[in-house]
Each structure stands twice: as structure tokens, then as C-alpha cells.
Amino acid sequence: MPRLKFSGSRLFVLDTNVLMHDPTSIFRFAEHNVYIPMVVLEELDGGKKGLSEVARNVRQVSRYFNELMESATEEEIKRGLPLGNSPYLPKEERTDGRLFFQTTDLATDTLPPGMMTSKVDNTIVNIALALQQDNQEKLVTLVSKDINLRIKSRILGVHSEDYFNDQVLDDIETLYTGQSELPADFWESHDKEMKSWKEEGRTFYQVGGPLVKSWVANQFIHLQDGSNFTAIVRKVEDEQATIELCTDHTSPSHDIWGITARNIEQSFALNLLMDPEIDFVTLQGPAGTGKTLLALAAALEQTIELKRYNEIIVTRVTVPVGEDIGFLPGTEEEKMNPWMGAFTDNLEVLSPSQSNDDWGRQATQDILQKWLKIRSLNFMRGRTFINKFVIIDEAQNLTPKQMKTLITRAGPGTKMICLGNVAQIDTPYLTEASSGLTYVVDRFKNWAFGGHIKLHRGERSRLADFASDNL
């Protein structure tokens, strides 16, 4: 039986993990064709049960497949299903590519003797190799999130690539930092026709000049000339920007729940955390930069003292660094307690007593029970948070879809804080460029009610700083 010849310039063979990672991946290859081996369908069938994000993605992929072939004949399926017919794609994203399923045995005898064809990965490589031999005028590419499978493919002469469509940026170094240092001659080039005024004790300036075009809403600007000038951009219109002088939280007179900022970046972070007009804040930086401490201090100040929020909600992804400790007994909060050590440690720092006596420990527990609630991500769907201060820790381990699920839980009066370090990702197949934290930083960077700061300088201890720099 003659093997099928494919039209189009390229043919992409998709690994199972690509579909599990992004159900819409079949639509992301423009005018090129997509090929699904039968073993991939078998693996998808085995992963469809459960309430995990992966299981949901698998079921969504199956729905896409069913929608595409619902009215197709057997012959049309063999010729390839047009992907542009999908009702799930916006008009501007319509594709001319076709979706092919494996309908014949594609075996080659070119695999090394040690590679067992009974293994799924080896079978997929074997299929890609056979397709390449039968379509030598086209580039056949195996797309996989599994680096070892890509290595095998290249050794055997099959072109392979990672799945790039989920990556927010090509270079993580270009990710928005939330601040900009001004040149020394800033006022000389930007003070023409400058206006200044005060509203409710806050000082505003309206400035124009060449740098204004590069600013975004809620970006911090500062001068390093000894003047301690720091401001936040409130609005940019045409070539004019409205900026507001920042509160200097490095000063003890502007402490938050007894905490003062130790550097300018922490002061910027506290400005965002304490601003009632900003609904969404992201703090990104290495361990020891104070992300959790600052977020908790701001949460306690605004919930207990200022009464802006009626409760603090804390959650995080339960991805272990080492071996999983297994089943945990108890209620939802009791199960989450082992994952919340960072918050417990910081609450002890923020508690009224710095001693190790029973009263200090009891005060911490009272705060935990009355004001701070620990919730699992597994039970977030369908919830709505009203007048809550929500802290999402370890946000770098969330996928963009999970991040969207969490953020859309926010109701009226709720403020959401995402904390994380994209250099410490523990979720399989998630990278710095495709992390949910990177995703929201990039998408919210010009929103008038959102803010972001990247923290660089560690403030935990001299031991931690030295270890971070040298180990």
C-alpha cells in the first residue's frame, strides 16, 4: 500500500506532552500540516481521567479532535482535516494547515538495535523517520517538550524542536522590570513647560520629552544623583506623562506593620502593595529579596489596621523540591500547612513579640486563624473573592491557563499579589519563557490598575547572599 504524500511546506509530528501542555497546539502551525501518531492518541486516552490540569487539557484535545472530524468521512480523514474550520479559532488566527492521523503502519528498519520499538518515544521517532523518508522534499519536524526525545531524534537525523508557541518572550532578560533609571540630564531635557500640583497630600508632575514614549502605566522612575527622586508613572498620553512622587518606605516614619524597606526596590514594591487603586501586583526576584515579607506586611496593615480588606487568602502550587512526602491527613488548611512554611516564618517576624515565649507564638496563631486563610489551588474553580487580599506564592510554577483561572476569581474590592522567581521552576515542561508569572508580567505591564517590580538585591542575611552568589 503506497504511503501518503503530504502537501504544504512542512510537516509537524506532535508528541503527547505538547498536546497535554497546550490543547490548542494543533492550531498553532499556520499553513503547515500536523501529524498525530496513533500511540499519541493511546497515551492521551490513558491521561484523560482525573481533576488535574493535565487531565483537563487531554479532555479538551479530545473535544477538538471530535469537533474537527464530526462530519468528516473516512476518506476525508485520510486526506487530512482542515484546521481552519475550527470554531475555537478567532478569525484573525485562522490557519490553512491540515490535521493528519496515522492510518497505516509506518515502520522503518533504520533504528539502532538497542532501541525497542515497544517504547512510545522510540515509536514516535520511528514514525517521524519514516515520514521523512517518504517526504524528502519537505521538512519533517518532531515537536516535543521532552528534551531526551529531541536528543534521540537529532542523533537519528530527524529534525526536532521544542514547542515555542507557549513562550511569552524569546529572551527572558527582556522581561519588564517595572522600573527605569533616569539619565543625569533628565530635568534639562524634560522640564520644559512642566506642571506640578498637589491632590490629597500627593504631589504630581506633568512632564514631556523623549523618554516619555517608552514609559508605561505604574512604572517607577528614579534618579541616582543623590536627590532621592523617585516617582511612579500614572498616565501617558501622547508625549505627556503624569507622574506622582513615591512614598519613601526606607524611612521609619513610613514603615508598614513595623517593616521598613531596605532598598529602593523594596520601597517601590511597598508603594504598589499599599496603593488601593492597584488591583494586581507581581513581585519577581531571587530568594531572600523580601517578596513574601513585604506582601504579608502590606496585607496585615491593610486588613487589620486600615480595614480595606476583610481577609487574607494565601495559596501556592504544591510542587515538592525533593521526594513527595505522600498523603497528608487533616483538613484543607492542615494539608496545606507544610507548604506554607515561608508564610509562618514571616508571620513570626511580623508578630507583636520577637521573643520565643508562649504569648508570641499564640499571637502568631491568632493572626493565622482569624485573618489569614490558607487555601489549595485544587479548589479554586467557581470561587469568587470579594474584598480579599490574595497572595499567590511560587507563581512561577503556574501555567498561563492556571494563572488565568486564579486571577479571574477576583471579585469587587479584591487585590491580588503574585510572588515568584522564574529561575526556580519545579513544574515539568515549564520554562522561564512560558511560566504563568512571565505571562502575566508581560500582559499586565501597561494596565492602569496593575504593577510589577523585579527585586534584585537579597536582604535575608550575609550568609544567604554569599551562598546565592557563589554556590
Automatic annotation (TrEMBL):
<dbReference type="GO" id="GO:0005524">
    <property type="term" value="F:ATP binding"/>
</dbReference>
<dbReference type="InterPro" id="IPR027417">
    <property type="entry name" value="P-loop_NTPase"/>
</dbReference>
<dbReference type="Pfam" id="PF13638">
    <property type="entry name" value="PIN_4"/>
</dbReference>
<dbReference type="InterPro" id="IPR051451">
    <property type="entry name" value="PhoH2-like"/>
</dbReference>
<dbReference type="InterPro" id="IPR002716">
    <property type="entry name" value="PIN_dom"/>
</dbReference>
<keyword id="KW-0547">Nucleotide-binding</keyword>
<protein>
    <submittedName>
        <fullName>PhoH family protein</fullName>
    </submittedName>
</protein>
<dbReference type="GO" id="GO:0005829">
    <property type="term" value="C:cytosol"/>
</dbReference>
<feature type="domain" description="PIN">
    <location>
        <begin position="10"/>
        <end position="151"/>
    </location>
</feature>
<keyword id="KW-0067">ATP-binding</keyword>
<comment type="similarity">
    <text>Belongs to the PhoH family.</text>
</comment>
<dbReference type="InterPro" id="IPR003714">
    <property type="entry name" value="PhoH"/>
</dbReference>
<dbReference type="Pfam" id="PF02562">
    <property type="entry name" value="PhoH"/>
</dbReference>
